[in-house]
């Protein structure tokens, strides 16, 4: 099969600029029009000042004081407009670009990444590097089209200026090609800077992760107690220095290129001015010509610098635009590869099945799941047990469609989950994980996020809170479910167990899930609280079973809590080593029975 040749970046840029311009229009129409207007008028402002100034001087020399006065007023008006444009253009463009970046581009990036079925791609270094660059530079993407328009307006200004100078003396036309030298030199430097950004992205991510670990409340506390914070901080410093070394070298080389380019242009320009001065001294030009030349000479410097800066920024934005386009291509490729649109069934009668499922995490050697086959009947409560790292979480993540099996099939009512629309399947799943999210919104919202359609429904939220046994938490908050959570936002901080119950309540928001997963969501709770919650969720599972045939999967280390499950799956090093009910497995006297006995003895000894 021949692979399609990817479209070069430069051919995709015009479409991207047009897209950003329409986004600007949608995000902030008034300012977008103002920015376009200011750019158009700024092209004619400087030549207008120069021409009216020449007319003023020549009229004065000819003794036409009335004309001279009128031209002087023209100079004042044109000068005032030029100054205003110089101040306003940057402000307006920055505001438009910033709004477009935050309100338009940022949500698009997040939506695109989230639209890819599964999360396996978020474990890939090449994807993470690009996401890191794009997240830091969405403003530059919003600004990219304005830099292009700014460059175009500066180039136009430059052309008008040089044409006027050419009329004074044709030799000055040679400045046109020479004005391109600084642009070219700057571009060369930017290529080096761009390469250095991608090269240093991995170390930058590493230092950021280490910083968050050391400075974070959770990980940071642990690091301080264990004394690992000094070492982690040293590693962070090393990673930062490695990134900075690469960046600094590239920027220094880029600066040398820019300086050399400017030197060539400025030398040529000085020669041009000398020619005009000689011409005026010989009487072949007017005093007005000399004034016009000096005026344009001053503004030409600014115009060329503006052109270089805007063009350099356009080129510089490629270090963000290129990874952005790469990410979009990646997302489109992933979506095309999936292309599954089948809707999930309304209810289950047969249930879910794993058929020789294997899975290895990207970048690792050992399979996390190895040839798992099991039937999870509709309406049943399945317990998954096993030691640390045996593959329990990976198994439920495959059931939830967060990862795709490398081999084998996950079936829903006999149909391959891979053929089903990921969005459709996820909308029929509920899950509470050990690493639950702490969403710092109001308590009611943190629960309601479990079912966005009903986030504002107080009855639905109250019921979910009741099911997670979290009523006392809500009642204890100063403003009940309307209390803002999180200290950073001036709200109330919940304890670990309270956050966990909030996560459980969130998972209870959906009324008719086909798959309900509880992956050790009660690890922060004591054994009696955990048992009480599981009892409650077992009852809920039985009620769901009668309606939609929901399969409830519970992952736990505490064997006693899951003894009431219909089926227990015992995992060991990625393999399913035993299957049966609690009674059957105890009777067999195998791995489950041994681990169960050990835990029971430990519990009895502790009481
Ligand atoms: N994102 C990941 N990338 C690479 N390897 C991973 C990842 N997540 C888990 N693993 C590995 O896959 C194996 C199974 O992990 P998994 O989290 O499924 O086990 P578990 O039984 O749920 O463990 P625990 O009881 O500690 O939660 C482990 O060897 C683990 O190190």
TrEMBL record:
<dbReference type="GO" id="GO:0034040">
    <property type="term" value="F:ATPase-coupled lipid transmembrane transporter activity"/>
</dbReference>
<dbReference type="Pfam" id="PF00005">
    <property type="entry name" value="ABC_tran"/>
</dbReference>
<feature type="transmembrane region" description="Helical">
    <location>
        <begin position="60"/>
        <end position="81"/>
    </location>
</feature>
<dbReference type="InterPro" id="IPR003439">
    <property type="entry name" value="ABC_transporter-like_ATP-bd"/>
</dbReference>
<dbReference type="InterPro" id="IPR027417">
    <property type="entry name" value="P-loop_NTPase"/>
</dbReference>
<feature type="transmembrane region" description="Helical">
    <location>
        <begin position="31"/>
        <end position="53"/>
    </location>
</feature>
<dbReference type="GO" id="GO:0016887">
    <property type="term" value="F:ATP hydrolysis activity"/>
</dbReference>
<feature type="transmembrane region" description="Helical">
    <location>
        <begin position="158"/>
        <end position="185"/>
    </location>
</feature>
<dbReference type="GO" id="GO:0005524">
    <property type="term" value="F:ATP binding"/>
</dbReference>
<keyword id="KW-0067">ATP-binding</keyword>
<dbReference type="InterPro" id="IPR003593">
    <property type="entry name" value="AAA+_ATPase"/>
</dbReference>
<keyword id="KW-0547">Nucleotide-binding</keyword>
<keyword id="KW-0472">Membrane</keyword>
<dbReference type="GO" id="GO:0005886">
    <property type="term" value="C:plasma membrane"/>
</dbReference>
<feature type="transmembrane region" description="Helical">
    <location>
        <begin position="254"/>
        <end position="278"/>
    </location>
</feature>
<keyword id="KW-1133">Transmembrane helix</keyword>
<dbReference type="InterPro" id="IPR036640">
    <property type="entry name" value="ABC1_TM_sf"/>
</dbReference>
<feature type="domain" description="ABC transporter">
    <location>
        <begin position="352"/>
        <end position="598"/>
    </location>
</feature>
<protein>
    <submittedName>
        <fullName>ABC transporter permease</fullName>
    </submittedName>
</protein>
<keyword id="KW-0812">Transmembrane</keyword>
<dbReference type="InterPro" id="IPR039421">
    <property type="entry name" value="Type_1_exporter"/>
</dbReference>
